[in-house]
Design brief:
Elements lengths: L1 E3 L1 E3 L2 E3 L6 E6 L4 E7 L3 H20 L2 H17 L1 H12 L3 H24 L4 E4 L3 E9 L2 E5 L5 H14 L3 E5 L6 H13 L6 E3 L4 H10 L5 E5 L2 H11 L5 E5 L4 E5 L5 H13 L9 E7 H15 L20 H16 L3 E4 L3 E2 L10 E2 L2 E4 L6 H4 L6 E7 L2 H8 L7 E5 L3 H10 L4 E4 L18 E2 L4 H7 L1 E9 L2
Parallel strand pairs: 1-5, 8-9, 8-11, 9-10, 11-12, 13-14, 13-20, 14-19, 18-19, 20-21
Antiparallel strand pairs: 2-3, 4-5, 6-7, 7-23, 12-22, 15-18, 16-17
Bound molecules: NADPH dihydro-nicotinamide-adenine-dinucleotide phosphate.
């Protein structure tokens, strides 16, 4: 059986204590590979490699950093099919979707490769008296921890800016989806990334992830994952005064006003509900619809959902693949039960799906639509992160905002209206880091990315990421 090793100092290595964890294929429910079960000793080894490489990497010209990161992007593109197949098998997402995401991972490297060349710092003049300039220096050795839903995409979203700014990185992908991060090591060597600049350590979050966060010399942690994990990480890292970027959970609303383009709102809401089995932090899981169009929206939405085939992630016609793990599968099903207890009426799905032959033990859930729930019940307040959405009617703009802003989260929101003034008003009043008007998941990598409230602290993307991964130092020169 294939063994996924750590990638430290440019070499693939077993964990120091030689432990292994099972890695499952969610489509079949079977173990298909083993991953290194790393601990503090592996973090120490990775740290030593990163520390040894750091000064040289920081002093590498930005043009050379650009060339290497850009080459990584090219090699990911060249190997798109291999990566996408690996991602689909590891995560359960449809292969066609994995292909898009691998392309986006390459784009992350390309984008931050060019950022390395463009990044500049500020100067502040005190007229006739002095000048200040800001040095933006690499932090040193930084830690990146990513989740299982968009494995290589989110992994690269952190690693690329960290490397572009001259840091050396210790990165941990989710233990549930380690495969494409592991393939990345080979590509980094081929692209000429010096040994030790990127180190990939596998294993359990509470064990090796915790060791990384607790390491006194890893000076910054960029984390994407659940809110409770983020809270735990902050409790360790904050007293050590580490720089922290936390991209956490969401419970995003789609607000559909009566004056919207209904057909587009329906089609996009189906996507934002069920793409990647609803396992995208930006998915809209609460669809709020103005009363006068509630029935027509509901009818069209349910009609559209009939087209979503649940099936083998490797088949081209599959729209909804497998749920990433047995634990997550059970969690989503338990929320369907909760919704029923809370008085919810299931209009579509509401059950698991058993496929045939090799796939009969895989973890599949039918796209589920629930109505008749109050906006403040648990189903409408807690993050479920699966193929389950609720439809809730509202009367006025004010009521829509009350509902939308009622959760402890504030990551993203999608607003549907053809009234320009209303679009601006609602965008300004929504408590979230990202607002889409008449669209969803339209991403420009230069824009700030992240959430407010329990959805996180700090922003990724563009200059925000370049600034996060550098330490500003002000130099003040007095004129003679
Ligand atoms: P988790 O918080 O469970 O895990 C995220 C990562 O943290 C994994 O690599 C995990 O390792 C690791 N980890 C777990 N415990 C610790 C610890 N004590 N110390 C250090 N690292 C730890 O999240 P999921 O993987 O379940 O991902 C789903 C969550 O991610 C959802 O809440 C989703 O909303 C959020 N998310 C947020 C995004 C955003 O941009 N705001 C984007 C995508 C997802 P292991 O897998 O081994 O447990």
């Amino acid at each position: 059986m294939q063994r996924i090793q750590n990638f430290i100092d440019g070499q693939y290595l077993d964990a120091q204590e030689l432990g292994w964890l099972d890695n499952y294929n969610p489509a079949t429910g079977k173990v298909y590979s083993m991953i290194a079960d790393s601990n503090e000793a592996d973090i120490e080894l990775a740290y030593a490699a990163a520390k040894a490489a750091q000064k040289d990497w920081e002093n590498t010209s930005s043009e050379n950093r650009f060339k290497i990161l850009n080459r990584i992007a090219e090699l990911i593109d060249i190997n798109n099919t291999e990566f996408a197949k690996a991602e689909s098998i590891d995560q359960g997402k449809p292969f066609w979707l994995a292909k898009n995401e691998i392309t986006r991972a390459a784009q992350n490297f390309r984008f931050f490769a060019t950022s390395a060349m463009q990044f500049s710092s500020e100067s502040h003049q005190m007229e006739g008296f002095a000048i200040n300039y800001t040095l933006r220096q690499a932090i040193g050795v930084v830690g990146c921890i990513s989740p299982w839903n968009l494995p290589l995409y989110l992994f690269s979203w952190k690693i690329a800016p960290a490397l572009a700014t001259g840091n050396c990185v210790i990165a941990k992908p989710s233990e549930i989806t380690p495969m494409t991060a592991s393939l990345l090591g080979k590509i980094c060597n081929e692209a000429g990334l010096p040994k030790g600049v990127l180190n990939i350590v596998h294993g359990l979050g509470p064990k090796v992830g915790n060791a990384m966060v607790s390491h006194p010399k890893i000076k910054a942690i960029s984390f994407t994952g659940g809110t409770s994990t983020g809270k735990h990480i902050a409790s360790i890292a904050a007293p050590m005064f580490k720089k922290l970027s936390l991209e956490l959970g969401g419970k995003n609303p789609n607000i559909i006003f009566a004056d919207c383009d209904l057909e587009k709102a329906v089609k996009t809401s189906v996507q934002s509900s069920f793409l990647n089995q609803g396992e995208i932090c930006l998915c809209g899981s609460r669809i709020l619809v103005q009363k006068s169009i509630f029935e027509s929206f509901k009818t069209a939405f349910l009609e559209e959902i009939k087209k979503l085939k649940v099936g083998n992630p490797l088949n081209d016609d599959t729209k909804v693949g497998a749920i990433v793990s047995k634990m997550h599968f059970d969690k989503v099903l338990s929320y369907i039960e909760l919704a029923k207890q809370e008085g919810g009426k299931i209009l579509a799905g509401g059950h698991s799906v058993q496929l045939e032959d090799d796939l009969k033990d895989g973890w599949y859930i039918a796209p589920t639509v629930i109505v008749n729930l109050s906006y403040d019940c648990r189903t409408n307040q807690e993050e479920i992160f699966g193929p389950l959405v609720t439809l809730t009617p509202f009367d006025t703009e004010e009521e829509a905002l009350t509902m939308a802003n009622s959760t402890e989260y504030g990551l993203a929101c999608s607003v549907w209206t053809n009234d320009l003034n209303k679009a601006h008003r609602v965008a300004a009043s929504i408590e979230s880091g990202i607002v889409w008007i008449n669209c969803w998941l339209l991403r420009d990598l230069r824009t700030p990315f992240g959430g407010v409230k329990y959805s996180g602290v700090g922003r990724e993307g563009g200059l925000e990421a370049m600034r996060f991964f550098t330490e500003p130092k002000n130099v003040c020169i007095k004129y003679n």
